[in-house]
RHS repeat protein
Amino acid sequence: MNQLIREDNEVLNKTITYSYDGGGNITSKKEYGYTTEVLGDVIKNYDYGYDDDNWKDKLGLYDKSGTQVVSYTYDSWGKPFPEVKYENMSISRM
């Protein structure tokens, strides 16, 4: 599907890997110390899920226990609103 699976970013001093489901939706992002070789220990791990009964593609970010920590709000056409919910806080984009 021509999707990014690894990013070796010397400027940010990190290597990031991405995983996707069969539909091409991102399921995880893992950050490591920068390397162009074999990966070391994971520094940060992000798990994504899709939990909307109508659209089946409503993105959310989940912590290690499976609790949703970031959610996005969508209009009736599936377009994201410029507001994100993060750990009981509302963050608006301009």
In short: The chain has a mean pLDDT of 79. The two ends are 31 Å apart (CA to CA). The CA atoms of residues 50 and 56 lie 6 Å apart. Residues 51-94 form one domain.
